[in-house]
Amino acid sequence: MPKIEKSDAEWREQLSPEQYRILREKGTERAWSGELNAAKGPGTFVCAGCGTALFDAGTKFDSGSGWPSFFAPFSDEAIEEHRDMSHGMVRVEVTCANCGGHLGHVFPDGPRPTGLRYCINSLSLEKKSET
User: Domains in the chain: how many in total?
Assistant: First the structure.
């Protein structure tokens, strides 16, 4: 499947200014500010930029970090990981494999079964509830 490619102008037209800052400029939202942090119930969290399924609601957990947290992606093909050495730290950035949008970071301090914590910006996601 070919990756989605859009101009900055197209992304700016589609996304809110805050979504653009996070998804396209690798920004982050303030902890506890995102409405999806408290989202519960079945469904799928999709990329706010392109609609790709990124996380199943069954993998969401309360990490106490202030951002939506998941212990596994929807599929191995849904996300890409990149070394991030910004802000004087070494972290692993998570992006949407389909459109390249910045989602957040993954850390090795999550629950079983994976031991991973995908710490994701709420504004980079949309929740699609099961019907």
Answer: 1
Q: Which of 47, 96, 99, 119 is catalytic?
A: 119
Enclosing domain of residue 77: 8-129
Long-range pairs, 1-5, Cβ under 8 A, ≥24: 1/98, 3/97, 3/98, 3/99, 3/100, 4/49, 4/50, 4/98, 4/99, 4/100
Question: Is the residue at 45 inside a domain?
Answer: yes
The pTM assigned to this predicted structure is: 0.94
Please list the ranges in the chain whose pLDDT falls under 50.
none
Q: In this structure, is residue 124 part of a structural domain?
A: yes
Chain segment 43-78, per-residue pLDDT in tens: 999 999 999 999 999 999 999 999 999 999 999 999
The verdict on whether 47 is a catalytic residue reads: no
